[in-house]
Structures are given as C-alpha cells and as structure tokens.
Amino acid sequence: MCRWLAYTGSPVTLDDLLYKPANSLVMQQSLHSRLGAEPTNGDGFGVGWYDEHSPTPGVFRSIEPAWSDRNLRELAQHVRSGVVLAHIRATSGSAVQQTNCHPFRHGRWLWMHNGLVAGFGRLKRDLQLAVDPELFPLIEGSTDSETLFYLALTLGLEDDPPRAVALALGVVEEAARGHGVDFPVQGTLVTTDGERLWAFRYSSEGRSRSLFRNQDVAVLREQYPDNPVLHGLTDETRIVVSEPLGDLRGAWIEVPESTCLVVDGGREEVRPFAPA
Questions:
Q1: How far is residue 43 from each of residues 53, 93, 172, measured CA to CA in Å?
Q2: What's the distance, CA 263 to chain centroid?
Q3: Distances 230 to 145, 183, 201, 265 between C-alpha atoms, Å
Q4: Minimal CA–CA distance to 82: which of 48, 32, 124, 117?
Q5: CA 34 → CA 2, 64, 72, 237, distances in Å?
Q6: Each residue of 54-84: b (16+ CB within 10 Å) or e?
Q7: For residue range 217-272, what is the model confidence (pLDDT) as tens digits?
Q8: CATH architecture for the domain at 3-272
Q9: Going by C-beta distance under 8 Å and a sequence separation of 6 or more, which residues neighbour residue 168?
C-alpha cells in the first residue's frame, strides 16, 4: 500500500525527517519498505506542513517517485516546521495523478491513509452520496482515501475527530454489508489541525497495516547519552510512522490494533477504537 510519517515537536527541516534517518521515508521506505504490503512505493508522494506565514498548511504533491524528485530534495532543505505529514504512495488501483496523492487538505486540516476500502468501486456511490452536498464538489481525485476524508468532515471531523472517523468507517462497513463486501476497511489513518494529531489503526478483519510511535525522547537520552540526534530533539517530540525510521533498540513502540492515538503537545493518549 503506502508509507507515511507524522511529526510534531520543535521545528525541523523536512530534510531531517525525510532523508536523514537510517530507514528514511524517501530514500529507504519508498524503495525498500520492510513492513509494507509492497517493498516499493513509487506512485507519487506528498508532504504537508504548518508555519507562521499562513493559517492553512502548505502542501507539495507530485506523481514522481519520491526518491528521484529533485524538487522535493530542494524544498526539503529549506522548509522548517513543527508539524509535518509526509506520504509515499503505492496505488491500490486508482490512477497515478496529483489529485490522488496524500496528504489531502481542507482548511486547516490534513489527512493521510495507508490501506484501502475493499470493493470501493461498488461502494463509491453510496459513500459519496453520504458526503455533505457543500463538500462534495471539493473531492478532486478518485481515491477511497479522499472520499473517507470528506465523509469524516461531513460527520464532524473538525469538532470531534475520533467520533467522526468512527462514524465514517461505520458508514463504510454498513455499505459493505449491503453490497456483500467482506472486511471493507483496512489501514492506518492520521489527521491534524496543526495543533493536535489523531492517528488510527483499524481493519475490519483485525489485521491492520503496521503503525509505530516513538519512545519518550527523555527516556532515550538516558539510554543513549552519546547519540547526538537525541540531544537535538525536545522532550515534546512525537513521531508516528508506518514503520520505524531507524534501528535504535527501544526507540519505537507499536500502536496496538483497533486504537486511536491522540497527540497534544508533549502529551499522548491511547484509546480503544472501533467504527460507530
């Protein structure tokens, strides 16, 4: 499927997140993913970030393979942000085009997905008819992921993200039952308004794509006092990833199945999650 990364903490360059880690999102996971459904994720990429210059996040998306895009490499060395979402894509059937690349944006909100809605072609009409008529014209691409985003916005994402995502996936599973589609939901989702971050791991089958969060930076500093990278991160730094960015023992904690992870500043909460 895909691989993604969500970062919140002290401002860093995109280069620090996308290229420098040992198992970096761009140079390693896009070509040699260890835990993904496919080792190569070359059907486009995207990155979204927040800064003080605009109330809405910036977004850069391309259909080029992430590892060979010179524009991304140039941009990454100059953009600094304290909240970043990045995604490398392996299509599950929809077209390779910019409007199908993640993250998707609406106002201050960004959204990414790794996985799929099984039987989406059969469910698409039902799901999109459930989208608010005022939001429906804003759907630009043809992916299940973007439809999920606007379905969640319709159901209250901006007010209560966990409830809205639970309701959106509930709509998907109900539509799937009507069309005889087994196990329709698969994957991990993340959304943010630039202040808080919500990540979800769920599948109808109970076999979700992988998801990890970093161990507390203060704990890692004690364990690895000679590691210079750890001294450059604040205690509030939180990274949520499809697969670990490096091999530092104890640095990554797997997010459990059927879970919502809420990150608010340096605080995080793990909640049980299921469709409503």
A1: 30, 11, 25
A2: 13
A3: 34, 41, 27, 18
A4: 48
A5: 12, 21, 23, 24
A6: eeebebbbebebbbebeebbebbeebebbbb
A7: 777 667 667 666 666 778 888 989 998 877 766 788 999 999 999 999 888 999 99
A8: 4-Layer Sandwich (3.60)
A9: 148, 151, 152, 154, 155
What's at 179, amino acid-wise? Answer: H
Beta strands in 123-211 (DSSP E): 185-192, 196-203
DSSP codes of every residue in 81-123 = EEEEEEEE---SSS--SGGGSSPEEETTEEEEEEEEETTHHHH
pTM of the entire predicted model: 0.90
Q: Where are the beta strands (DSSP E) in the chain?
A: 3-13, 45-49, 58-62, 80-88, 104-106, 109-117, 185-192, 196-203, 212-214, 238-241, 252-254, 259-264, 267-272
As a whole number of angstroms, the distance between CA 5 and CA 104 comes to 14
Q: Please, what is the end-to-end C-alpha distance for the chain in angstroms? A: 25
30 pLDDT band, cuts 50/70/90, is low
Structural domain boundaries in the chain: 3-272
**What's the CA gap between 215 and 42, in Å, rounded?**
29
121-170 pLDDT, tens per residue? 999 999 999 999 999 999 999 999 999 999 999 999 999 999 999 999 99
In this structure, which amino acid lies at residue 220?
Answer: L
Strands 3-13 and 238-241: antiparallel
